[in-house]
Amino acid sequence: MPKPSQYPLKQQLRYQIDNYMSRGSSSIFMALLLTFLIGFLVMVLVRLIANFFFPDETLSSLYEIPWRVYVAVMEGSAAETDGDSNWLAKLTSIVGVLVGLILFSSMVAFITSVFEAKLDELRRGRSIVLEKNHTLILGFGDRILEVIRELIEANESEPDAAIVILSDDDKENMDNYIRDNIQNFRTTRIITRSGVVTNINNLRNVMAENAKSIIIINSAASWQTEKEKNLADALVLKSVMSIIAVCKGNEHPPIVCEIHSNRDRNLAQNISNGSVKALNEVSVLSKMIAQLALSRNGLSVVYGDMVGFDGNEFYFYRPEEGWPYSLTFKESLYRFNNSTPMGIHTQNGKIILNPPKDMEIQNEDELIIFAEDDSTIKYFKEPVFSPKIDSIPKVKTNIPSQRVALLNWTTKTKIIVEKLCSYLREKSELMVYVPALNEEMENLKQSLAKKYPMIQIGIKTIDFNELKDLERIKPQSFDSILILSPGGSTIEEMDAYVISLLIRIRQILLSMDDEKDKSLKSPKLITEVMDSENIDIILNSGVEDFMVSNQFVSQIMAQVSEEPLALDVYDDLFRADGSEIYIKPATSYFDFSEKETIKIKYGECVEAAQLREEIILGLQFYAEQKNKENMFGLKLIPDKDEVFTISARDGFVALAQDEG
Predict the structure, then answer these.
(1) Domains of the chain: residue spans and CATH
(2) Fewest beta carbons less than 10 Å away: which of 268, 445, 607, 640?
(3) Tens of pLDDT along 249-285?
(4) For residues 68 and 43, is the Cβ–Cβ distance under 8 A?
(5) Half-sphere exposure of residue 469, counting CA atoms within 13 Å on the CB side?
(6) Judging by DSSP bridges, how do beta strands 456-461 and 366-371 pair with one another?
(7) Contact predicate 556/284, CB 8 Å
(8) Rounded to whole angstroms, how far apart are CA atoms 442 and 240?
(9) What is the mean pLDDT of residues 147-170?
(10) Residues 305, 312 contacting (CB under 8 angstroms)
């Protein structure tokens, strides 16, 4: 015999009703519908009883009662149909109107609340995303706008592309921020969702397994503390593992992420059998900034054009019918007209930039092509150009010693100083100016002094806000001054600091009074910029070369998301013992001893570079070096038959083993 419940029936009934109502809006709707039906049946019963005691002569039959009750409940004004009925029928009709008002108002209120709840859910960004072949971005930081702009450019050839963003930021704030800063989305739709990026259910909601590629943005900036960066790296690794779990261990979409630690970077890239590419911002930018300090003006523009989708970029190409037998790399240079092979991606996965000219291309190899777009790459079975030159002038390379100043100590400074020391010639001087000294700086100075005894290395303190302190270091006596962007709470603050420092240095350079100072050549100013919107301000401050750090890293991440092997090319490009990009004087390729200018086809320039075991990517015209609208004088990968007038002061953009 079942034990009787110790709770009253009323309490048990209320508990059952609460459980039923907590199931969601469908349960509430059914409860309201049931209440409406019960109310309708009760009113029909009351009207039948009233008609039994006081018959309503206006009724044609009893079957008309349910209709009159329904009309009274649903539409109060329809109760006038009982205008000629007796007083009891009128009273029941009035009661029916009141019951209808209560029930109908409840139904309207319920529907309104459901709509409001749905809108609130949409605002919170919790709903499922029904997309496939979309680019999924996990995280929302300073890089997001640059990444979106690059992906919009990349998606321009697609009729309907989608970018899905999952972040723990508020959806409405994300939508407003993107709309405020990007006006033209072209063929790309931006879909945002709010949630924890490492949560498996959230990743399923944004269809991570159906994505074309996945970009994971690191939540910590390079200038933050090691503890913050290590935690952010751990979250990136967890996001990668969550994506693998969502894909049930199967092949997952290509993943590109940013990781500060080299140890965690290697771990991420070997975490699965699928493609995971991890970018180290500090390593890439430091090596590039060091190059800018010693190269001709314009190298940053070459790199910017290379990583941006609106310029030229890397492509991996192999003809459908394969390569002809015994085709050498040098011969392949003349099988493309307005695109340039830079290297070979071998069939065993190795990247070789600027390979030996007699290296044969195997049938399964891919050429690494530098081109404006994949649609412009056209392979010809016969050479498109036959060069006539067979010799180049014998130039004695005499790279002079230099004085280089580096202002500010950041996470990039150590690598930049090491790289500069490897570039600088004997009797050069490298001075680092910092607000305060620490043990790391002294250790670096001592280790580099032992490794490079012929280079004078110094680290001194200075107050960058004091004009007299800046005058004391004599900026005009340096060949190059490199200004790094310090840490800050926002990229706008960081750029403001750099711009204010630039203004002080420029003021000193403009106020050189004595004859000795005037005889000195003004130093080359190079600076790191965080926000691309500040480029015009930087250029007006006298800067000759710049690196937009935030934009550059974002562009690489976007490019690697479309072509994962692109990161392997950049890694090889910035290796200490690999080929790098230089802007070399035209006198290294042609003889200008008898004339100031020469007219030459671009194909002959390609051959001249090959005679130096280099690959030419384009030309730089000295007269246009300060013209921003004309790419600062750069002309990259023109047609091989195009004729140019070249002077001794012009430059060749070359992929070469060294600067000589």
Answers:
(1) 9-124 (1.10.287), 135-279 (3.40.50.720), 287-376 (3.30.70), 579-660 (no CATH)
(2) 445
(3) 768 999 999 999 888 888 888 888 888 999 888 888 8
(4) no
(5) 12
(6) unpaired
(7) yes
(8) 38
(9) 91
(10) yes
